[in-house]
Amino acid sequence: MTLDQQSVGRLSRMDAMQQQAMANATHARRVQMRARIAAALARLDAGEFGWCEECGEAIPESRLALDPTLMRCVGCASG
After folding, report:
1. How far from the centroid of its chain's Cα atoms is residue 9's Cα?
2. What is the pTM of this model?
3. What is the pLDDT of residues 27-64, one digit of tens each?
4. Residue 51 phi, psi dihedral angles, 5° rounding
5. Which CATH architecture has domain 10-77?
6. Across the strands, what pairs with 58?
7. CA-CA distance, 15 to 35, in Å (whole number)?
8. What is the DSSP string of 24-76?
9. pLDDT tops 90 at residue 69
10. Which of 15, 48, 53, 67 is spaced 20 to 30 Å from 21 by Cα?
């Protein structure tokens, strides 16, 4: 997204900068989510979906139902 330089006034420029920052943050979140989904699909293809990447234990289905891109069980995710 490019900054609109046609807007006049300091508040207009600040608003445009804020909108640009928000659009950039939204784009970054989408890119990150696409990567997480691609990784989950790769784990599914490899037969490793639903298993914790740290301890190797099964991730509960209820946890995966909330977010199927998770790679760790509750114990490993909490530290």
Report:
1. 35
2. 0.72
3. 999 999 999 999 999 999 999 999 999 999 999 999 99
4. -115, 135
5. Up-down Bundle (1.20)
6. 51
7. 30
8. HHHHHHHHHHHHHHHHHHHHHHHT-TTB-TTT-PBPPHHHHHH-TT--S-HHH
9. yes
10. 67
The answer to whether 48 and 71 have CB atoms below 8 angstroms apart is no
Gap between the Cα atoms of 7 and 32, Å rounded: 32
In this prediction, residue 5 has a pLDDT band, given cuts at 50, 70 and 90, of low
Dihedral sign of CA atoms 13, 14, 20, 23 in order = negative
Token code pair at residue 42: 């790769």
- Nearest-angstrom CA–CA distance, 15 and 47: 48
Q: Where are the domains of the chain?
A: 10-77
| pLDDT value for 4 | 57
